[in-house]
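Revision sheet: structure tokens.
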Amino acid sequence: MVIVVYIFKPFKLYQKQNASNNKILIQRSISVAPQDLTVQGARFCYALFCLVYCVNMNTQLQLIDQIMSIEAQRNTRLRAAAEDTASPPKPNPKPEKPRVQKPLSVREKLWVKNVYDYVYKVKSAECTYEDPQKNECLLKVAEILDISKKTVYVVLREIKLNGVPREPKKSGPKRSFKDKLSKETFTAITQIVHQCRLKKETPFLVKVTQAVNNNPNLPNFSKTTIRSILVHLKLISTTRRRKTTNLPLDIKDEILPEV
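Predicted:
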């Protein structure tokens, strides 16, 4: 701190005596890019030089120019070395997402038909004595529209059979058996299970399935669907439980627990 104050006070006196010269030097040093830290070093060297040697103005300007050029060359070399040692950009580890396949609209199907008619017309003009092969036209249309050959064939076949392209079917949410069946069906299945209990019969899963399928008022179900319905009605637990009996049980059969 003592050295800085000792240098700063005489430099103030020197600035008052040479105000015009200092103004030129300050403008000269400000012209350098402010982000370079070498500007402060150049100003400090200039202040020391003026205090110690007090040389003329031209020599001072030449000294500052030399300092600036040396520091600029040094910074250029450092930037070039940093660029050489920089690691190459890492490739993107995420694979490209496949294109989402959507059904063709009516407008797009008409495009396919028009392109096929144009390709067939051009091929017919080239082949004077024979009709162009359909396979070549399909491949050319698929290449132009960037779709598969099978898609082109399906669209042309649909237009040929119906005369007009149809709108694509809207796929809604997948419904389970709970949404498809009515309350009356659930009630009838529950009554079948209770009737087995009242008759003091063992309600095997196979027996309940046969009873449901033999009923003309109920639709036919598989054993897996019947089990899902009974789990939904809380007539059977999700974990399989068996009761020990003297009769041999099939591995796929299951005894319904009492409610």
